[in-house]
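One-letter codes give the sequence; the fold follows as tokens. An example follows:
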Amino acid sequence: MKQIDRIYINGQFVAPKGTATADIISPVDGTIASRLTYANEADAQDAIIAASRAQATYAQSTLPERAGYLQRIHDEIMLRMDALIEATIVEYGATRERAKWSNMLAATTFTGFIPVMEKYAFEKPVNESTVIMEPVGVSAIFTPWNSSSGSIAVKLAPALAAGCAVIIKPSEFSPWQAQLIMEAIHAAGLPAGVVNMVNGRGDVISKALMESNSVTKIAFTGSTTVGKMIAQQAVRTMKRLTLELSGKSANIILEDADLSKALPLALQAIFMNNGQACIAGSRLLVPAGKLDEVKVGLLEAYQTFKVGNPNDATVNIGPVASQQQFDRIQRYIQVALDEGATLIAGGLGHPEGLEQGFYVKPTIFMDVNNQMRIAREEVFGPVLTVIPYQNEDEAIAIANDTEYGLMTYFSTTDVDHAKQLARRVQSGRVLINTLKHDPLAPFGGFKHSGIGRENGDFGIEAFLEPKALIV
């Protein structure tokens, strides 16, 4: 069992002042994977002081210096890749392939921001003025448990590129992964106080960070419910905000789509990351006249998905992250049954032979309309709802009839037509015939799916303030 009993403040791993502990349960088999000692509010205050002291000097660092830090963080993560993959499997339940992909993405995110930073115009003429883009200041980043290293990287890399000192508040459910990333950052040799990490209860740590006038920027990934609370708290001290929140994404199968390709892709879009993804294509919109054909195709494609121990190379769906997640998904499956949805695959309970750990049955419902709770609320699990539409106008209307707006998927043989339809959907990203991730394109959501964007120039600008110089 791992003991996670150090936080990182002012360039050193130190024992937290907090004394409370929590056992981190592995979703793979229900055993204790690690024991975390929580940081407390005093630890958060120490991190704020360290970051505030480092900010003035780091803001004056050169781009070559920052590039060197980003490159070395990448290199140190790569040296710890095997350990990160193991931690992601044991602590979160990701399949080995997914664990490798997500941690490789974290590493390359740091180097990916080097050319973005080097090409970015930190000073530019605007009409009769010169606009100087300055670091926003001490930034607190809150990261989720479903993508620990990747979420740290996508926030920390642009903050460092912009010249900001940072306090990381990782999910308390992924402390081993966060510890390994912090060890890599420490080994990269950044100046003391530029990056700090306090791992503790969200309500305790966030209180100090949100109330501090020294913290000028918040970058948060998590649920819309928590994001709204953070936004309300942030305005009291006028903190700048980037919020990457919940989703209920529509996956629209157009009339001309090749179902033999579109339906396996649709199941990947909902079952990826064990169903725990804000971008999951959880609402599958299909032509009403093709429902029977879609049902047959979904059941055929479903057979290619295997639930099991994520260390098994033949498994492509591991357990969900916790007992709480398991229970949440079971409640939503029961809600769907109560609402009259037709279960065609999966359902309640553990898969046979997987009673130990937090394994759920990947589930597909048909006979769903967009007013059912199962179609409106984020389940955050491998549960797909199939919703029929009569024509494209209705498909677009259904896709937009949600409080969220993170992602929309299209499957079609006419890409140009789908591009035109993409202009009508209210979401931050639209994917056509693919599940590809572009790490330099803006990522974020419309409506209740968030505020602001991450990645590329948009990611750097989220940690900058413009100053107009007029002579």
